[in-house]
Amino acid sequence: MQSDIREGELVFSFQDARSLDKFDDVNTHGMAHAMKAVDFLAAFGPSTWLMEVKDPEDSGIPPEHANKERVRFLSELQSKKLVNDVLAPKLRDTLVYLALAHRAPTNRILYIAVIAVAELDSALLLAATEALKAKCYLPGPFKQLWASNFDVVVVNLESFNRAFEPHSVTRQPPNS
Question: What pTM was estimated for this model as a whole?
């Protein structure tokens, strides 16, 4: 069974998801307005994916602002501002909410931050992944592993499709 979920112009297709939830929606989770939520959750047999999507190349950005927005976004990614102020807090708040709501996954947890910028190179993606790992304190408390197997990764569309095949993401602007 294939399940699809859309985030802006990006459509994610999952071949074997047990459940797929749009999570960044107050009607779905009821989180306090001060908390930040990841965009969606995808549950599979052995793992649960918490996914955050950032798309500074969305065609809905007015053309006169598109380049400036892209440059600003890449600057925030390189300076770790995106990791520190957006990606890590969304993971933290989502996990706190799920734990307190007795909905925390008990299987492997993978946080996937999808950055939809075509020319992101593997070095920048790796640096962002390492910064996110450090910010999320993956070794666990006192360097003891967490009870759940837990990891994070930052990918672009191409590397998502390569790493998570048969799952995929495609860009589908509203007019197509």
Answer: 0.90
